[in-house]
Amino acid sequence: MNTDMTTTNSESDWWKWGDAYKRKSLTDFPILHQFLKDRWNQPFDHTHPLKSSFSIHTNEERAANVYNILKQQVSHVRIENSLSVRLKKALGKSYPDVLSALSDDPIEVADVVVFPKNHDEILQVLKVCLEHKILIVPFGGGSNVVRAFSLPKNDLPRIVIDMSLNNALLNLDETNHTAIFGGGIYGPAIEKHLNAKGYTLGHFPQSFEYSTLGGWLATRSAGQESSGYGRIDEIVISMRIATPVGEISVGNYEGDAEGINLKSVFLGSEASLGIITEAKVRIHPLPQYKSWLVAVFPSFQHGVDALKQLVQKDIFPTVARFSDELETEYLKLVSSEVGVLADVKSLISNIVLKLKGIEKPTIMMVRFDGTQSEAELNRKLAASIFEKNKGFDIGDGIGKKWEHSRFGLPYLRDDLVERGVFVDTMETVVPWDKVDALRKKVQANLLMSDAFGKEKGVILAHVSHVYTSSASIYFTVITAQQKGSEYQQWEEIKNIVTNTIVSEGGAVSHHHSIGTDHRKWYLEKTDVLTKKVLQNIKSTLDPHHIMNPGKLFDEQ
Questions:
Q1: How far apart are the first and last CA of the chain?
Q2: Annotation: CATH topology of 3-15+52-162
Q3: Which CATH class is domain 420-520?
Q4: Rounded Cα–Cα distance for residues 458 and 33 (Å)
Q5: What is d(CA 151, CA 192) in angstroms, rounded to the nearest whole number?
Q6: Predicted TM-score of the model (pTM)
Q7: To which H or E segment does residue 7 belong?
Q8: How does pLDDT run across 354-380, given as a tens digit for each residue?
Q9: How far is CA 344 from CA 226, 361, 471, in A?
Q10: Who's near 486: CB < 8 A, 6+ residues apart?
Q11: Tens of pLDDT, residues 161-171
């Protein structure tokens, strides 16, 4: 019998991003605050009242039964059944997740949370769940933004497997430049282990501080330095995976011809086939030198052309970030406050822009790593290409400040949402010749939408990952929330942006994965035979369909 219950939680902001002491408030940015007030004629002064309790949807009789089963069969594994612990593993960091935390609607929670320490314990838990048909949702860092942790609304028993104790460095091979880690290790812990020996993994997604290696692999993650070091699917060499029916190992070499390699089947699988418990990855010596180049262009297309020419000459920056006119203006707005990119406004002064004939500037930041001579040579070559595309060099200060503050950028989001501001991000990858066209099409389609606020809505865009044939473009949507229909507003905006992306030839996701939010577009794009093959693999590894149900492809 399902019941709605209330749990008191002393950490009432458990659903927010990151560490409490790092969080920002709109009141810290008075110029931005005034901009929002003026644009939407709303004060945005008051946040939601602080919650002392949360309503949850659960079946406690079923939960007690699941707890007893696991306690009897895997008693050596840590198992938690308090409402507080279960609640904290119920949501990710998507905009709908935040709405769920702010609303009074009951939040769906698991029956128990299990904390296995290693591959063997994970495998044992999965086998028990297979026997008793208990649904499983793995939880890494909880940073996913497409509702990959959402639980089905049925009466089947379910657990969350928290991977945080499976966090060991299992091997560091300095001869072959590889390392093996447990799948639950967080980004900073990886870098701490490697940096101590003079190495880096080179994988730095926006969620770096609060996401795990297994999560990166399960979602086919890209990091802010992937243009130089490669995406996670290029970094990983082999994986050890626990499935309900047993262990499977994929890959062993960076290159071989040993028939069909199933590694790609598990990359991006979002734990729908099994749980990645260990992974061997390539590591790199820490760069001796980093050289930033920051340039301003007269239009977005000029900068896109410059980036395309750069990488098609096989000059790949470690970091590439190119903001369009509106995002550059927004950065100037935010930089007038304390903290982020504090000298954008002064470096892109109106006098300099007029001398260069630039009315609406776009800002490019690229970084080259290596020895000093390598990095400076690549910077010089990039500056020449940028100059030929009407870009002018404004030094390296902004790039260094961005690097210093880059993981703090999400901290303002939760406060904005609490104050009635809609803010969400969406991304894709498209061929170079479609980047600017897609940006303009998304803008045009949103401007026709009441949910977006038509001409009052704000859509920012930047290129964040570059390849020889394509680039990733990342959108940030800002508008005023429609009170009483916040979720419906999000759904309309999400549909407009993603429908436009797909119709213009873009991927459903470049690095945010599929989860629940992108599933319908993923299924529309996937051909019948591919789905049949995936179904057969699913049925072999997960015969009762207990692994992260409702994600990716159709299930029985």
A1: 24
A2: 3.30.43
A3: alpha beta
A4: 14
A5: 34
A6: 0.95
A7: strand 3-8
A8: 656 777 889 999 999 999 999 999 999
A9: 25, 11, 25
A10: 99, 422
A11: 999 999 999 99
